[in-house]
Amino acid sequence: MTVIDSLLLQRQTEGRPVRLGLVGAGFMARGLVNQVVNSTPGVQLTVVCNRTPAKAAAVVTEAGATAVAAESPADVVRIAGAGDVAVTDDIALVSGSDAVDVVVDATGAVGFGAELALACIAGGKHLVLLNAEVDATLGPLLATKADAAGIVYSGADGDQPAVQMNLLRFVRQIGLRPLVAGNIKGLQDPYRNPTTQEGFARRWGQDPWMVTSFADGTKVSVEQALVANAAGFTAPKRGLYAMDHTGHVDELTQRYDVDELRNLGGVVDYVVGARPGPGVYVMAEHDDPKQRHYLELYKLGSGPLYSFYTPYHLCHFEVPTTVARVALLGDPAIRPLGAPQVDVVTLAKTDLPAGTVLDRPGGYHYYGEAERADVTHADRLLPVGLAEGCRLRRDVRRDEVIGYADVELPSGRLVDRLRAEQDERFFGEPAAHPAGASAGTG
Question: Which of 89, 166, 187, 412 has the least CB density, counted as fewest CB within 10 Å?
Answer without folding.
Answer: 412
